[in-house]
Write a structure and sequence with these properties.
- By secondary structure, the chain is α+β, with helices and mostly antiparallel strands.
- It is about 50% helix and about 30% strand.
- It has helices at about 1-10, 10-25, 55-70, and strands at about 30-40, 40-50, 75-85.
- It has a three-stranded mixed β-sheet.
- It is globular.
- The protein starts with a helix and ends with a strand.
Length: about 80
């Protein structure tokens, strides 16, 4: 549990999640967001619920920046796009 709390409080991870959220929201202003700690792989997740049929379009908006965060910056952040019901 200590590691989970530490991820939640890391300002670099918090800033990364806010940046990813802003990128998605700029393209999908009605998107709803939820952040949570996940275990597979371990890290912080940003769930983006969007009113769109193909969630790959959401990934297209953030993939370059997300990969830079993960690979270049070593941040355990992940985005999970979900279609609105």
């Amino acid at each position: 549990m200590v590691a989970e709390r530490h991820l939640d409080q890391d300002p670099r991870i918090e800033a990364a999640l806010l940046e990813l959220r802003a990128l998605i929201q700029a393209r999908y202003p009605t998107a709803a967001f939820l952040t949570f700690h996940g275990d597979d792989p371990a890290g912080m997740y940003l769930q983006a619920t969007v009113e769109i049929d193909d969630t790959d379009e959401v990934v297209d908006v953030i993939i370059d920046r997300l990969l830079a965060m993960q690979v270049d910056e070593g941040l355990p952040v992940y985005v999970l796009p979900v279609r609105a019901a």
